[in-house]
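Why does residue order matter? Because the sequence determines the fold. Keep that principle in mind as you read this record.
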Amino acid sequence: MVNCSIVTYRHTSEEITLLLDCILKSCVNKIYIIDNSPTDELKVIRNYSEHIIYIFNDSNVGYGVAHNMALRKSIEENVDYHVVINPDISFEKGLLNRLALIMDKNKDYGQLMPKVVYQNGELQYLCRLIPTPWDYICKRYLPFKYAKKHADKFMLKFTGYNTIMNVPILSGCFMFLRVSALKEIGLFDERFFMYPEDDDLTRRMHMKYKTIYYPYLQVCHGYEAAPYKSLKMHFILLYNMVKYFNKWGWLFDKNRREINKKVLMELDYKN
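Structure:
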């Protein structure tokens, strides 16, 4: 069985029905919609399908906290897989079933992410090494010509993104998760309001299981990352990244160094 969760904030029912149609074309058990909006206008979405469970929080509790509400339900229900999905995702009929079959055949896979593209078909580079503070400085603040070589390594662009890869950081826009593995490693760390919670969870998953990028199936991700467009969201990102590095280490992080070295060796990276 597969459960899904979607966290919304000021979304209308029209904005998420495309995703719901995609999900309902696969065999799913329950679709949890966790609404962090100030009003419950989205509650009408419950009438769209009997599979939908609508949860209204009456405040913006954050991305990880909201998804954890659904993840705990999946653990209680003992389903096989849970998919964390952004509202701006779309995909072809039967995708979730095909991903479940891949996970069924590979018991050492804890997490799976397909290829992610923009609406125009352009590839999104969402696989990464475990970040250092310098990685984020290069990615977000340095001029492109200076940051390009570093980004090619950090975001694993040198691979071409055309082969199956076991990488330590996968995007939170689409996370196909093995529920039994979540019981072992834990859920989203609720100290993070938004952004590094997906890095943190994937990193913990990678320490116990394979976290796989699978390029032979794909989803479409509609929007550009908010920190690039909103100053407020950018400061939220910075605040939560400080929390992330306080947890794992700023300069001295032996686990990060060892995992990144192993990943680059497996991917045959050449300086």
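The mean pLDDT is 92.
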